[in-house]
Task: structure prediction
Amino acid sequence: MGLRYSSYIDHPKSKHAKFVTYGCCHCRTHLSSSAQIMSKDYRGTTGDAYLMNKVVNVFEGNKETRHMLTGRYIVCDILCHMCRNLVGWKYLESDRKDQRYKEGKYILELQTICKVH
Ligand SMILES: [Zn+2]
Result:
């Protein structure tokens, strides 16, 4: 019987009043949702950013090593697959054990996304 209730997750208007879908600010392609936010306490290259569990409809750019406040990471940029707007990056590997939870997770820069319906 539990399965029957899980389908409501996709119907935010009925059950999740605060559910927000995030899209590309240029073409409004859906990228992620408020249900995927792991942390709002991040900084991107353009300002505030969110750490997201899952992001869809993006291309992954070339792998590169980036030095950040919390250490060295191998990351790749993520771009909207419709308009190639740069929307953030994906963490691929971390040097530090305590930062490994970010591996496979995404940063979305708030400047590059918008709320869509
Ligand atoms: Zn786009």
Summary: Residues 24, 26-27, 29, 80, 82-83, 85 surround zinc ion (CB under 6 Å).
